Amino acid sequence: MSERYVGAPWRSRFLRAPKIAFELVHRSDFTMLSCLASAKLGLKTGCDEFFYPVSVESRDQQAFERRNTAVRVRGLNGAWEGMLRVADLRPAVLNPHQLIAPAGRALVIPRRTQASYLYPRDGPLRADLSDYVKAGERAGVNKRKLVQDNASPKRWFKQARGIVRSSWALPYNSAYDYGAIDNAVGAVLNGRFVGIDPLDGVDPDLLGAALNTTFVVVCRLLEGTTTGVEGAFDVGPPAVRRMMIPDVRRIEDERAAEIFNVLNEMRAENLIPSAPSSQAAVSELRNRLDLAVLMGLGCSRGEASAVTGRVYESYARWRASVEAVETMMRANRREMSRQGRNRAARPVDVAARRIWEEIEHLAIAYPSDLLSSEDATEAVDVGRRLKIPTQEPLFEAGVVFAVDGGRVDLGSYDRARYLGMLLAIGFEPPFEVPVDSTKARAIVDAFEKDLAALQREVRARAEAYLGEPRAVDAVVNAVQQLWFRKGRSLSMTRR
Fold this sequence. Notes:
alpha+beta; Adenine-n6-DNA-methyltransferase TaqI, Chain A, domain 2; 2 domains; 4-stranded antiparallel β-sheet; 3-stranded antiparallel β-sheet; elongated
């Protein structure tokens, strides 16, 4: 009897993490983050362009702290602009990219954020909020499923789901520079963040410092899910809870001073130090933080230096390998873009297109290439669901039968064959059939000969690209359809 699998995901654990990560997660002074903090996903509103209006004028911080002050904002992707009360808004961050500065990733969310989360007070709608709500209804925001699921019983524009204002925020998706963001201001976190709140007895600053170490940058690769972009991982709440991080509960007060010093310097610079480069280059602040945390756990300076050195070297080798793949993938995507292809294309379709490009100049378009201006044709207006005889019958040789029992007499078996050829190519009624049976026979004979030759040629070429018989058959059929499409593009009559 099969049993439910309860282990951790394997998709990245054994494929895409630096070797040193497996040593770190087995250290006795590391623990799962779930033992130190809670993790919850930021808000999924169902319509961020409505629920996160953006300020369009700069106001001093004191103005935003006066709850009755109205500020000018723009919402619905710029389709609406008006005045909303500060009391109906909460400072918010939508994604980690908003916190990137020229020097790098900001460590601290500012008190004054450009975006705000719409969180109206109970009672009458103040300032231009009523007009904004009506604009949202005209845009159909209130009809979106997730908006309806999150709505308060009487007000669709006030979401009932609890807002996430955790003291630390981890990016849901991040490539190399993965770090925790200080949210002491209590900004509302969007669903592109995972909010982290320390459990009782866990020092918030020590937790934040541990989350910004290189050890967490490495260990999260074991739990994250690759996104299709090399080096980028989705790390949602379940993965965050499993991440192994330094157990800050083991850090005694007298060993925490240097950790606080480094963290305060990071706050003063408002910078999360970059992750080690592919050449193992590390900023001084990152190195000092890593050493301070290990020494806080009881390691000597020499032991801490040895561990961090090995971590940087292992991570650098991993990063260099991933960056090499990224370089190749960018080159491949540029070439695919040049050829009008995309990553979603099936190998069979790619092979078929390549083979067709190689032989298209040799393939004539049926039937137009074999018709002249002197060939008279007759329009036969019948449906596509016909039964065409596979060999000439003794009686009524030119009769074809519809599936509903109807019949059409074309006068000769060769004209019936010609109609069958048009059906195979994919033409739609009314069908133009040559009046001359001899002409019809000559075209159909040539078509059958060329079809057999095309199938042989495509099969031989496909076997050189694909070894699997079913794939070869699929390529043959795909190229045949491309040939038929060429015929349809030039019509049933003479060119």
